[in-house]
Amino acid sequence: MAVSIDDLDLDQLAAKERKLGAGSSIKFVFAVFIAAVWIVPFYYLIVSIFKTTEQYSLNHPLSLPTGVAPFLANAIDAWVTAKMGAGLLNSTLYGLVGAGLAVFFAAMAAYGLSRIDFKRKNFWFMLIFAGTVFPFQMYLIPLFFGYQKAGIINTHFGMLLVYTAICIPFPTLVLKNYMNGLSREMDEAARMDGAREFTVFWRIVLPNCKGPITATFLLQFTWIWNDLLFSTVLANRTETRSIMNALQVFQGSYSSTGPNVVLTATIIATVPSVVLFFLLRRHFMEGMRISSL
Questions:
Q1: What is the domain count for the chain?
Q2: What is the DSSP code string of 253-287?
Q3: Looking at the structure, do residues 192 and 152 belong to the same domain, yes or no?
Q4: d(CA 92, CA 83)
Q5: Which of 52, 69, 86 is where one domain is finished?
Q6: Is 0.70 topped by the overall pTM?
Q7: Which of 140, 206, 236, 271 suits 86 as a labelling partner, its CA being 20 to 30 A distant?
């Protein structure tokens, strides 16, 4: 029986469609699996904060809560017992001031490295960026003993000092690359009109860097907010303790209150950083887009 060329083409197309269908099914199953891996922890977190300690211990961890009323009791318990108010204020201070100063100093450094001609610019840039080459754990022991001798351990000033210093290199890199792309003609025009160098930086260059400045500020704020290493070593008292340090102490000392209360405390701790991101999200996305060009 003769087989036409058209029949062969149809069979080949049908085979290709079956292969494509099988590949799409595998991709779909894989995507569902990845989504489940991400969703299950969030589901566990959400259902846990709406349970009392008794409900959490007696029922399955993934079972649905009976109501939303336990959340308020858990939040009050976590706020009072873990002294979260002081931790939130301290972390807000460290994040806003530390990240703000770091980005400002980084912007000045980036301006000098990109807009002013002087000798050994690459050397100074590498010197600024050298602090990120080594792991931060290497600095802990020298910092601890140095802070003890200087009398600034367990102080807000000491924490702001270390956070500002650590957060300078990365914004310097981002802002330097961005400022290199700005036209230098506006700088020269401002200097011809008698503007000093800081005036050129403050009034001409800085307003054109709102996007990358906001992006780097949010990134550094988030890093400071989530930091546990330096806060644990350099500020372990209640009056200077960060929110992450407070959560660690709460989880270790008051675990008898139940994981549901600890998880509620973590939800409360994430609120300020999430709110700040939504307030500045437009500038953040613009800054990330510009920085990737």
A1: 2
A2: H-GGG-HHHHHHHHHHHHHHHHHHHHHHHHHHHHH
A3: yes
A4: 15
A5: 69
A6: yes
A7: 140
